């Protein structure tokens, strides 16, 4: 076995054993070479393979940081269950708690809100005219180690959300239960939800935004939300680090 592979196997074992917990800054490649008796070039090649696998992130000047390899299990249709957001649990909070044995998990979410002119796709998603004013709510979420996991942008008709928690830039969800709960309080209860998913290579801007190497894939998601009467109340688009999420669906087979 090549020395590079020997070191790679050893590092994988130590990461699995928790020797270097998520968020740990590893010793420099030169220090690792001395510690394990390998050439620096072998250490560098192995680290690049660990980064490609999503286990570490090599940052210039900041060192190599250990990432959390445990993916968030997204609960498919169940994450949107009415009883959850009506009880104050936003969809992503439901995902996080489900993956933690049902225990509550603090989600680090940072938000930007602004009023913009609707692009063609946003106008189509909200069934309004192109160029009409809409509220754009962007949020970026991080795991416990401070690593970005994904970011999502939602667009709303201005009159649907003006003066609500959706307009807040405070960290965290848009009040208890998130945007769905806010829409319900506005008399616009979400009823029909459609999601489209696509996996692809990231753009340079996305590698910067998610702090991932270009070798990792991303999952992009589009979401359309309508009331029982068919009125659009949200159009959303998000980009996820594909290694950070496991999408799970349980549903009854249609007749």
TrEMBL record:
Top-level taxon in the UniProt lineage: Bacteria
Domain HTH gntR-type positions: 1-69
Transmembrane segments: none
UniProt cross-references to CDD domains, sorted A to Z: WHTH_GntR (cd07377)
Coiled-coil segments on the chain, per record: none
Region of interest (Disordered), ranges: 1-23
InterPro entries per UniProt: Bact_HTH_transcr_reg (IPR050679), Chorismate_lyase_/UTRA_dom_sf (IPR028978), Tscrpt_reg_HTH_GntR (IPR000524), UTRA (IPR011663), WH-like_DNA-bd_sf (IPR036388), WH_DNA-bd_sf (IPR036390)
Basic and acidic residues bias: start-end ranges: 1-15
Gene3D superfamilies: Chorismate lyase-like, Winged helix-like DNA-binding domain superfamily/Winged helix DNA-binding domain
GO molecular function annotation: DNA binding; DNA-binding transcription factor activity
BP-aspect Gene Ontology terms: negative regulation of DNA-templated transcription
Keyword line: DNA-binding, Transcription, Transcription regulation
Name recorded for this polypeptide: GntR family transcriptional regulator
Phylogenetic lineage: Bacteria, Bacillati, Actinomycetota, Actinomycetes, Pseudonocardiales
């Amino acid at each position: 076995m090549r020395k590079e592979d020997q070191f790679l196997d050893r590092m994988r074992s130590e990461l699995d054993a928790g020797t270097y917990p998520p968020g740990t800054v590893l010793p420099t490649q030169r220090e690792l070479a001395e510690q394990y008796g390998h050439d620096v070039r072998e250490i560098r090649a192995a680290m690049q393979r660990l980064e490609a696998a999503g286990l570490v992130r090599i940052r210039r000047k900041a060192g190599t940081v250990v990432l959390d390899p445990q993916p968030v299990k997204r609960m498919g249709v169940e994450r949107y269950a009415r009883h959850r957001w009506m009880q104050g649990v936003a969809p992503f909070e439901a995902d996080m708690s489900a993956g933690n044995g049902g225990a509550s998990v603090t989600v680090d979410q940072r938000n930007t809100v602004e009023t913009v002119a609707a692009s063609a796709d946003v106008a189509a998603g909200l069934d309004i005219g192109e160029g009409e004013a809409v509220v754009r709510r962007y949020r970026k979420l991080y795991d416990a180690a401070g690593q970005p996991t994904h970011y999502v942008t939602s667009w709303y008709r201005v009159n649907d959300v003006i003066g609500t928690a959706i307009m807040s830039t405070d960290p965290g969800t848009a009040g208890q239960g998130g945007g769905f709960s806010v829409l319900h309080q506005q008399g616009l209860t979400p009823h029909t939800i459609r999601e489209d998913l696509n996996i692809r290579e990231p753009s340079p801007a996305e590698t910067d935004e998610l702090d991932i190497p270009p070798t990792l894939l991303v999952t992009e998601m589009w979401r359309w939300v309508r009331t029982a009467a068919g009125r659009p109340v949200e159009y959303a688009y998000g980009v996820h680090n594909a290694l950070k999420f496991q999408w799970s669906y349980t549903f009854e087979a249609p007749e």
